[in-house]
């Protein structure tokens, strides 16, 4: 009877831990990173910090349940296969949650970089449109006085200097663009293989990927 009671207590504890992990796993695997405009980045930053805090607080409880299961094995409990099943499931789920937290960290960093890049690119585009409209409006006249012509030349010199400064800004944006992770492609159907790098170890029925491995995705 004691063997059954200890087994039930362990299984209940293990199931609670697995359910707790599954709830957080479901949030991450269903998160849509492809539309940057729909992401609440400040909220995600807070959520990431909260998730790490929750994991830190949960770890002692998780370890306690896991250790109780391991102790049952060491004591020669007759339900060895059931205990091993739950111990393996717990460890696999815990490792996966830690991997997902790393993925969340990287995706959040990529999203923040993309958002910052888009804001800077939009600012540069607005400035260029504004200058183009101003040049067309102010300097398209074919008749003007000598004094007006001299004034326009001075203004054009100033605009030329501004354009040179913005050229360096545009070059910087071009360099930054090569470092931007194409999150938007996550929501697109690709027409050709794309090189990807695994952020975490991942295994399912049809695929096995190791962290840091590079491969071509499927269409």
From TrEMBL:
GO terms for molecular function: structural molecule activity. One of its GO terms (biological process) is intermediate filament cytoskeleton organization. Gene3D superfamilies: 1.20.58.60. Pfam families: Spectrin (PF00435), Spectrin_3 (PF21019). GO terms for cellular component: cytoplasm; hemidesmosome; intermediate filament; membrane. This is Uncharacterized protein.
